[in-house]
Amino acid sequence: MALPHLTDEEIRTWTPEQKDRWWLENVFRGNMPQLTIRAAITGFFLGGILSATNLYIGAKTGWTFGVGVTSVILSFVIFRTLAKAQVSKDMTILENNAVQSIATAAGYMTGPLISALMAYMFVTNTTMEWHKMLIWNIVASLLGVMVAFPMKRRFINDEQQPFPEGRACAVVLDSLYPDAPAGGTKNMVGDMPVERK
């Protein structure tokens, strides 16, 4: 199913309130579980493993990779297998998206270790102590989160710009969960989304 989105004309002419109303009517999925304990634990676990692999690849090649699509697929496989073995119920599409968000955040933490800190150590010809690296990552993370809120509001909500990796993950999620309930309040009966046909 194609992901719902506004036209270029609607993006240019609609007010932020109209865009928020459109999102509520066409995308919002009601009370579907999303940030659950199992999603958080799975996201932390996959994020830890994938960020370690990202750090290794980055140290070898100088490139880091987003781990969003990988975490979506791994999470889907893990919980679909557990559901078939009747150990756990399958994840919802929004739970898997929460896993992807957590794992991606962990994956991006390796970026400064590969780029900025490596450049600093190369230029100064010194090895930075681990506690200084930790402080650098914490400060960079806090600044990133504080800047992310207004940027998200401006670029994603107002200008409807797709975040490339997030868009790719959305397409993968949509194809992995073809029977997921349709989004939007106009596709809901009470608080429950209507199943896709």
Our measurement of the CA-to-CA distance between the termini, rounded to an integer number of angstroms, reads 10 Å
Question: How many helical stretches?
Answer: 9
Low-confidence stretches: none
CA-atom Rg in angstroms: 19 Å
Helix content: 55-70%
Describe the main β-sheet briefly.
2 strands, antiparallel
Q: What's this model, at a glance?
A:
This protein is an all-alpha fold and 197 residues long. It has helices spanning 8-13, 16-26, 37-61, 68-84, 93-108, 110-114, 116-124, 130-158, 164-176, and strands spanning 188-189, 192-193.
Can you characterise this structure?
There is one protein chain. By secondary structure, this protein is mostly helical. 66% of the residues lie in helices and 2% in strands. The chain is built from nine helices and two strands. A two-stranded antiparallel ribbon has the order 1-2. A hairpin with a 2-residue loop joins strand 1 (188-189) and strand 2. Helix 3 (37-61) crosses helix 4 and helix 5 (93-108) packs antiparallel against helix 9. The longest helix is centred in the last third of the chain and has 29 residues, at 130-158. The model has no long low-confidence stretch (mean pLDDT 83).
Overview features:
197 residues, mainly alpha, two-stranded antiparallel ribbon, 9 helices, globular
